[in-house]
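# nightly structure sweep
# worker-07 picked up a monomer target from the shared queue
# config: single-sequence mode, recycle default, output format = structure tokens
# input follows
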Amino acid sequence: MNILYVAHERNLGGASKSLVTLVSDMKRRGHTVAVILPFRSGQVGRSLKEQGIPVRHIFFGWWMMPKAWNPLFQILFRILYRMEPLAVRRIASFARKRQVQIIHSNSSAIDAGARAALRCGLPHVWHFREFGDLDYGLSYLLGKEESARRACAVPGKIVFISKCLRHYYEKEIPDAHAEVIYNGVAGTFLYDKHEAVQNGKGRSRARGTVTFLIAGNFHEGKHQELAIEACRILHMQGVRGMRLVIAGASSALKSSKAFEERLRAEAGKLPDGMITFTGYVSDMAGLRKTTDVELVCSAMEAFGRVTAEAMLSSNPVIGADSGATPELITDGENGFLFESGNAEALADKMRYFLERPDELVRMGTNAYRYAKEHFLACCNTDAVERLYRMLLADGCE
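# output follows
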């Protein structure tokens, strides 16, 4: 098959990591692939080129924008979107020259790929990887209902990365247009740490210490402050033997930098060494080998890539009982769910592992086995590949 992917961002967020993994797998399976990016520089383009994947740069706007932008920026954004037909024609022309069979858009935030598919008469796969408003504060320029109507008018399928996200669009997008396929995570995260320790090849946990990890860029929606508050609660209760590692960095947004400053200020009130900030980490798989439990405090994860990565690394996860997180965590088996936004509830779950460190092995092993069966990249690629073949067999081409 000959597939053209249309992506939307410069840096390697969760959606783009999933894209790079998917496209690389498709190439390894013998398919012809190429990716359209709106930006000439950035981590996404570099990662794709390192995999030998052709990248074409065609600038286009989004059909979502931040609600918090001032009116002037919103007007400029709408003007940019009105110029999108120029980019759509270029994408369509590129698709024809390459004899593309399917166009695949990597985010619900963009519609240029869908419009190009309509122009070329090609089937379109549209990955909805975010809520938009609930997780990133974005809103559709045309409104949710009208945007969904236009999405359904494009021959193909809309892929949701969780049942929760599918449910969010239940009224606007009929089942005939929808498919639920969980994200796939690269095998680099696959690590049975408890087996490795038994075979003398892994790192033993520091005696009497449990290391918790929370990973993600500094954004208020990630709620890293809950992890710090839970540590403060445990410390005030006299609980010892815990460490919290906060992995991530702020973005270019002022709000993100201000949030990081607040986090560091709160962490500074606790004893030295209890909380560590790593900054941006390029080797999260390596970092997870040195930690015991992962915290996912986000209120509205559309899937929970961090959760899947942690479980593949044999780390049980304590996650908020909201968004798609409950789809990944079986409470008491491969981790725990806590009441979203409740630091005291989070502290209670952290205390469980501090008081019963042997449970790290049981739950960590369960997490590893469950994630290996459900969240490896090959599972995702198999499902998407079947979807492509179905669309072509149905004569959408």
